[in-house]
Every structure is written in C-alpha cells, then in structure tokens.
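User: Now give one protein:

AI:
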Amino acid sequence: MPTPTTDPTTSIAKQDRCADLPHRPRVLLGKMGLDGHDRGVKLIARAMRDSGVHVIYSGLWQTPRSLAISARDEDADCIACSMMSNSHLVLVPRLLDECRKVGRADMIVNVGGIIPQEDVQTLIKAGVNKVFHTGTSMEQIVDSVRASVKPYAALDSKNANATARLAREISLAHAAPGANGGARGSRQTGSSKSAGAAKRPAQVVGITGAPGAGKSTLTASMCAESVRRGWKMAVVAFDPMSPITSGALLGDRLRVDFNSVDENVFYRSLAIVGEDYSTLPAIIDLIGAAGFDKLMIETVGAGQNDVAIRNFVDRTAVVVVPGMGDAVQMDKAGILEIADVFVVNKADFPGENKLVRELRDVATGRAIFETIATQGQGVVELLDGLFH
C-alpha cells in the first residue's frame, strides 16, 4: 500500500541561504485558475521559508489581476505561479499584462507546473523569467528566488503608479538598518524618500489575540465590508520571523478575496522578530500620506504579555475565542488589559456564553462584540465600533 508523504520530492536542509543578499527575498506564491490543489505549493512555501525567504501565500483560485495586485502591494521580488494544465498560454500573458496595468511592468514572473516543452519559448518571449517543470529541485527554486533580489531603490513615477511607490517606500522603511530587516540578514541601506510627506491616518486600529483566534479572517471580513461602504482601507499584517533561518511564511492575505475587493484595499504583510515594531511609526505615516484615512494593523499571534501594539494605535481590539481558559487564566492575561474592545470570535463554538460572562467581569464597561468571521456575522457592528 502506498505511504503518503508530507515532504517535498527533493528535501532541503533548514538553513539560512539568503543572509548575503541586499534584503530578504519576498516571493509571492499563487495558484491561478481553477486548480483546487495546494499541497504542493505549501510544501514549496515551507521549504523556501526554511531557506530564509519571506514567502507570501495568496491562496487558491487567483486571477491574473488579483496576483498582480498582490505582488505590487507586497513589493514582491518575484511571482512564482502555477496553474492547471492547458491554461498557461492564456493565464500567464494576462498576468504579465496585469502587472503592467497595476504599475509593475518590471515584476519578475516564474512559472511552474506541467508545461509542454514546445510552449516554453512562447512564455519566455511573452516576458516570463523562468519556467520550472516537475522534478525541479528545491535548490534550483531557491536559487531562482535569490537571483530576483536587487537592492531597494525608490520607484519613479514614470513607470510605477502611486500605490506601487507606496509599497516600495514601506519596503525601504522596514529594511532600515537595526530593525527587523536590517538586523536579520538584510544589507539594505536605502531610506524612504517620502519621509517629509508623513501623515498619520485619521484612525489606526490594532487587531491582536492568540494564534488561531481568527484575526486574519475577521480582518478580511471587515475589509470586504469597508469596500461595500466605499471606504479607503489599508491593512498591515505582521507574522513572525524564524529564529533559525530568518525566513517567514506570510499567509494572512489569503483570507481576503482580492478577486472581489480588487484595489480598494491596500494590504501589506511584514515579518518581525518578537514585538519589534520599531519601523511601524514610519510605515503608518507613509500609508496616511498616501491618502488612507483608516488603517488596521494585525499583530502576530499574541501571548499573555504581548502588549506592545497599544503604543502605536488609537484603539486596540483583542480577539478571544471559547476555550481560551478559565477565569484565573483571564485575570492573569496581560493582553486583556490593553483592550479597548473585546471580540469574541467563533461565537458558534461551545462555551461562548461562559466566555462572554467571564469577559464582562474584567471588561469594566468596555464593549464586547460577538462575531462569526467565517460567516460575516457581527462584522458590521464590529466595524462600526472600531471606526466611528
């Protein structure tokens, strides 16, 4: 009987392979079209993270436009995409065209999958950087990502639109020497050119809570509702950086359906060490200067003492779920002290009523919202409570 495996076809040792580069490689992984299988791309994502790469996973069923928007807003060094057989000659040229339309005609695009040899040159002539076939080693894939990294420099207005330039300014700010990017292998020495135009958004909200509380899904639901209202919303989502390789798996944006919200939400994923938010003030000001008056900041999965985000935002929402612990655990959880509002997510889970009762004992008048983010339940009320 065949034995299932969770390892890539060609395993690769966990070690930092990117410390010598100008900055940590940022690669956007995406599956275009109707391909509903993501096991392979997840294995590749983990292997690249374990090589020191910052991997942005956009999820399944992406369109060429949604991938192009994601690559631009994330300021990816390259796109690595795959799709079902027989769709590459249609979808890939559209992806290249959409990259031009969203202001990043220079975006490097690598394609993988079952690509007939006779179609390779057609894709290369269309503008694809490299085509990878089944059997490609992980070392080859990592090397292609390394080769895409160039020192950050401000994008000029002739070839890049305002959103693309904002994305690059955020990269420059986050790669400042001594911060997360500079301290963990980045040699980037550039600086943001827009510092003089700094302007804080009118409302900055922090979304924090334990891992698995549903912060990303909740944020995605609020993004969809903000688009329906015609708001101009921005999101900065933080994920942890590996203490071993300095790689990161940035997967929060996959909860947002960019096929629907399109360019109406600016979403940026960043990796940090611990609670090092030293670059956040500059990033907040850049986003405000770009015309966004509402900003949500999603923290890494937080523990009892992870409370630093409160120093950077106007209002903090702490997301909790049924089963997080008894009343004693809640009383000693310092993160609950920083809440301006509480969000009981997964309110359809057993124990929800008990959790709300115990929260009322510690809330001291602070609002408690009950949500089921996967169904959009309670999201309208929460958005009204956070942005008013």
Notes: The longest helix spans residues 88-101. The CA atoms of residues 28 and 71 lie 6 Å apart. The chain is about 30% helix and 20% strand. The chain has two domains: 26-147, 195-386.
